Amino acid sequence: MLVAAATAVLIASGSTAYANCDPGEIVIKFSHVTNTDKHPKGIAATLLEQRVNDEMNGKACMQVYPNSTLYNDNKVLEALLNNDVQMAAPSLSKFEKFTKKFRIFDLPFMFKDVNAVDAFQNSETGQAMKTSMVKRGLLGLEFWHNGMKQFSASKPLLVPGDAKGLKFRVQSSDVLVAEIEAMGAVPQKMAFSEVYGALQTGVVNGQENTWSNIYGKKFFEVQDGTTETNHGIIDYLVVTSTDFWDGLPDDVRAQLTTILREVTEKRNAESTAVNNDAKDAIMKAGGVVRQLNAEQRQMWVDVMKPVWTRFEGDVGKDNIMAAQKFNT
Ligand code: LMR
């Protein structure tokens, strides 16, 4: 397996190589879709790989496949169930086929910042969500943070009316489809790996994402600008299959759990800073970032918040109220 120094070189160079696993080691393939630097998930996955390979040498070996090199998020959950990969961290928007409970995380203006998301996830309701798909063979291990979503488009967006008639790429979530329709725009579900090309060729005119994704996949290069709306969140569930997890020797499962917990705490505490850096990097690279005044922001809230009512049945009114408490 690669030694820590070699891993560090790979992180620094941003290149991708996979640990050579020794015979007898349990191989854990971790597939994800983002870049590895200036990205909360990319950094966390690389750190996890490094720690597992350093501290569990001889027992377990992790290989992280970033940038959709192995699977995109729409395929990775099936791949987990087939044991083709053993870990992934799709955004919570991508679990729709398995649970409707996560829809709460996609409701626009539900959480004012990542701290509110963190507090909700750490509540009893949030923690129970990790085991909500066990019957379907998937087990959530930890929530990983990315950050608040912003809108980018092929023209300046200051009020919702500016988005009218534009086509926006969304993740595979019906809540996000409803959100875009509420703006009078046209939603199109699409895999993350296809977004840059679709923006460049005009297949879609805009998209919503975090600063780290807009920077990491260079969306800002093929957009007029990005408006700081903070209208929603992108957060992740580190997920495995119950078959794989239950089949691990107890000591391996326990050590992995501890390492994953420590990586989660360390990297989640940095997610907002990583996104702020990505935002600065966008501006330094010449990307346009627009701010809303209070009146303009309220117009986006007024247009999008009615979406909540439509999904109240899926997420539970009591859960919405519980989530709202963490915004104060
Ligand atoms: C997206 O599809 O836009 C995001 O879920 C990608 C990611 O993993 O952050």
UniProtKB/TrEMBL annotation:
Signal peptide: 1-19
InterPro entries: DctP_fam, TRAP_DctP, TRAP_DctP_sf
Keywords assigned by UniProt, alphabetized: Signal, Transport
Domain of life where this protein originates: Bacteria
Keyword check for Oxidoreductase: no
UniProt record similarity statement: Belongs to the bacterial solute-binding protein 7 family.
Entry-linked NCBIfam families: dctP, TRAP_S1
Name of the protein: DctP family TRAP transporter solute-binding subunit
